[in-house]
Amino acid sequence: MSMLNLSMEEFKNEFKAGKITVAVYGQGKMGLPLANIFAEAGANVIGVDICEEVVNNLNKGINHITEEPFLSELVAKNVKNGTYHATTDGKSAAEQADIMIILVPTLTDEKGNIKLLPVYNVAEIISNGLKKGNIVITEATMPPSTTESLIPILEKSGLKLTNGDFGLAHAPERTMTGTALRDIKGQYPKIIGANDAKTLEILCGMYETINSAGIVSISSIKGAEAVKVFEGVYRDVNIGLANELALWCEEHNVEALEVFSSANTQPYCHIHTPGAGVGGHCIPVYPWFVINSSKELNPRIIKTARELNDYMAYHMVELTIKGLNSFEKSLKNAKILVLGLTFRGGVKEFMKSAAIPIIAELNKWDADVYTFDPLCNADDAERFGAKWVELESNKWDAVIITSDHLEFKNMNLDNLKDNMTIPLIIDGRNTINPVIAREKGFTYLSVGNYKL
């Protein structure tokens, strides 16, 4: 069916009647929820993934993204209803589909170089099955201009974008692990930029069927790509500013969070929360999309913020050394418990987790490093260079908190103190109330809160 010959209302009717086939390439943390929300809304959905085990399980109704609330039930329901199935055959999916969505990972290496090969590989596969009237959408977060760089690949199909043979758009995912279903369904408006007005009209109709917050249309594909990238850059830069102001507060013996919360009572001020660093697949990655794609501009603020936020993990070790020294104890051979391996509480993800460089740095100082995380196990600890231990099973010289798990926020501080030779907490996520900790006899240090 040619999508580009339909009016918006005609498209919506066909969509809800199950006559529109959508292929979602990438059935990971963002692609699988999106595919199944479309299936729930009425579309015939094909989930495409390169992993045979994932595909086989999905076709049995078994969800592999188990940490995403309510997704398992949704996948099972859609498979049972026949509105969703998965495949490793991307060419066949393209041949069957009316709309193809690319939602595969886009990451950087340690030097910030962007890895887009998965996106180009998917475009190549789609070109082998692309038909007149189809629409190709990228939802993966990418450097602005990436979507349009796929045009020569897609045109290997023999179709021409400039002739209106197919449509092309970018509609960035705006989701977070743990709340993906909520986010896709309407936590935020959907951003869409397309190659022409007709493609934009059809896609507005499609996303309106699943997103209650509405649509924000952008005048260009490149502009739509910039929206998501800039959201991440904004947060990274402002976290960097908060961290730098917190370091100043440490130097001047001022309580950073007290100052920040007071300043934020003014409506034009929104100082973020300082901490042990910025983790995940998004915020620490997207700044490099801007930095490495700039030909004339040398993005100084963005680059400095990125460097500063990476430094904060090492500052946690500096605070640990200062805290131990105040008890006339050195870091060498000290028994350190690192609470948290994941980059964020409640989510088992390690990308750019502050715990990783913290553990590595502690090992360089010949500390005796242990770790506990309620979502992890001994294999995870060993992979990052620490010994696995239960929370209350040893005598610690210091505890460093690197993840804001609910279990850490609700810790029994009296029990913790009983298991410490030195009552020293270095809190990288502001999980514990410093007043309560100090009342219970702890020396409590955090970024911007350095009092011995």
Automatic annotation (TrEMBL):
Homotetramer; probably dimer of dimers. It comes from the Archaea. Signal peptide: none annotated. Residues 337-434 form the UDP-glucose/GDP-mannose dehydrogenase C-terminal domain. The keyword Oxidoreductase applies. GO terms for molecular function: NAD binding; oxidoreductase activity, acting on the CH-CH group of donors, NAD or NADP as acceptor; UDP-N-acetyl-D-mannosamine dehydrogenase activity. It catalyses: UDP-N-acetyl-alpha-D-mannosamine + 2 NAD(+) + H2O = UDP-N-acetyl-alpha-D-mannosaminouronate + 2 NADH + 3 H(+). It is an enzyme of class 1 (oxidoreductase). Pfam families: UDPG_MGDP_dh (PF00984), UDPG_MGDP_dh_C (PF03720), UDPG_MGDP_dh_N (PF03721). This is UDP-N-acetyl-D-mannosamine dehydrogenase. Keywords: NAD, Oxidoreductase. InterPro entries: 6-PGluconate_DH-like_C_sf (IPR008927), NAD(P)-bd_dom_sf (IPR036291), UDP-Glc/GDP-Man (IPR017476), UDP-Glc/GDP-Man_DH_C (IPR014027), UDP-Glc/GDP-Man_DH_C_sf (IPR036220), UDP-Glc/GDP-Man_DH_dimer (IPR014026), UDP-Glc/GDP-Man_DH_N (IPR001732), UDP_ManNAc/GlcNAc_DH (IPR028359). Transmembrane segments: none annotated. Its EC number is 1.1.1.336. Belongs to the UDP-glucose/GDP-mannose dehydrogenase family. GO terms for biological process: polysaccharide biosynthetic process.
